[in-house]
Amino acid sequence: TDVFRLLQVASPIDIFVSHDWPRGIYNHGNTRELLRRKRFLTDEVSSGSLGNPAHEKLLKVLRPRYWFSAHLHVKFPAIIRHENKTITRFLALGKCLPNHDFLQVIDVQPQNNSQAGEGGATAKVLEYDREWLAIMKSTNHLLSTERTYLQMPTPLGNGGRRFDFRPSQEELKQIDSLFSSGRDNLDAYVVPQNFAPTAPVWDEKTDPKSGTPPRFVPNPQTSRLLRKLEVRDVIGEYLYGGELPSGGGRPSAGAGGTTAPAAEEGKQPARVTTEANPEEIDIDDDDDDGDDGDEKNAVNVPLSAPPPAASKPANPEEIEIGDLDDDDDDEEE
To answer: Given 76, 194, 272, 281, which residue has the most CB atoms within 10 angstroms?
Structure first.
């Protein structure tokens, strides 16, 4: 459902963040270097199966300016040139370890740089996205916690039912009404500063690492937003093990102020459980020795000390997405 919802977004997107890589992204970067460092990926690259096919579709449709992914614990930059001449700069990074490429600073200027703060002054604030809120509300009936295949609406054989959920002007006006948006309320979509602790702080002395997942705690800020939109919290329902208590739980006073919301009477929140995926690659045990060839000249330094200025030789074949500009790309083409 989330993929279907994202495909309804029509506004330009600056940054897309995902855990999995989009399928086929390796074709747009230095594949040889990737396989030298992660040899166990060779078969998937050869078969064209490495990456998430849903993310591949999102990449082609949404065409964000930047796409950042995780999962494979290796630095891999790539440039994707779309049919409409726009460009997506992709970047994945390595493990947060000494002599690994785990950090890159990128200055991203938003396409719409006019943010209205208090009194109409320009300010950097977090805002809800009007278009996305409308999509969430109009697709609420498509949400489900059942472990069955869900067929999303399509133009073919749908019996005249709606299949295009790109927001209409009427739906956008409905969202404006819910958030009291107008000329006299420029901060209508600003995320309220009502962040608060929702669970006790973990204490290693009283709760040593036992491998037991923590109990699920509903997020009151999320609950308030979804109630306002009249949208189900399916993730909360699934992890809680049933319908959430109204209000997302009742806060209970504790030593640190607000702690975990109390569950409704007679109902204990479900523990978060994870099931093993037989197709998942255990990257924590991957062949990091493959990195040694590229980093054998690097100087080992403690994490608390700054690395030498030239701790690792530059790779002349590597694309640094922060240093690219569209003019250079056009000349290459």
So the answer is: 76
